[in-house]
Amino acid sequence: MTEYNEKLNQVIESVGVVPVIVLNDAKKAVPLAKALLAGGIPCMEVTFRTAAAEDAIREIHEQVSGIHLGAGTVITVAQAGKAVAAGARFIVSPGLDENIVRWCQERDIAVFPGVCTATEVQKAVCLGLDTLKFFPAEAAGGVNMIKNLCGPFPNVRFMATGGISMANIAQYAACRHIAAVGGSWMAKADAIEAERWDEITAKSAEAVAAMKRCK
Ligand code: 3PG
Asked: What is the average pLDDT across 172-187?
């Protein structure tokens, strides 16, 4: 593993929260990244769900230091290429795509594919991965499912995402198989749209504190 990827894993694990961001306007990317940083979150996943994703990643990469920047909802190798060219240092997918995983591995780019079944975890482990996105976390059985999956796969750590909020974060924080939780609750589309940066900072700080308290 490269030195950077090792550092990235440490950051994700120590902060415990990876915001999943949907940006409709790349101009909001820099103030948003700064709002997350101010709340103690030095990492983020900008999703390829909008046309603004690539520009947003570029803006953050060029203008904000101290943030570990990833691209999310990457479902094609072409998107992974665009994301990395724009400055993303890690790739997250909702599902497991061997082509994307191998493309990233060949370039030493950290990759966190989504899994939610034993078959998918097994495939990911065979591809040499040990930190996986568990998605959609709540709908797929939450912490109970993660604990069950970790019976046969004790070395796998999960970034649980999908349906997580302050209402259920404590269960995830208390689970030793969790590397981090991901989600959109600290930076919802309406808060970004209305530029409520202080609110995003406060929710980020609250999320980090909740993960720390239970560790
Ligand atoms: C993701 O892509 O990881 C999820 O859509 C985020 O889920 P959430 O919006 O329920 O936090």
From this structure: 96
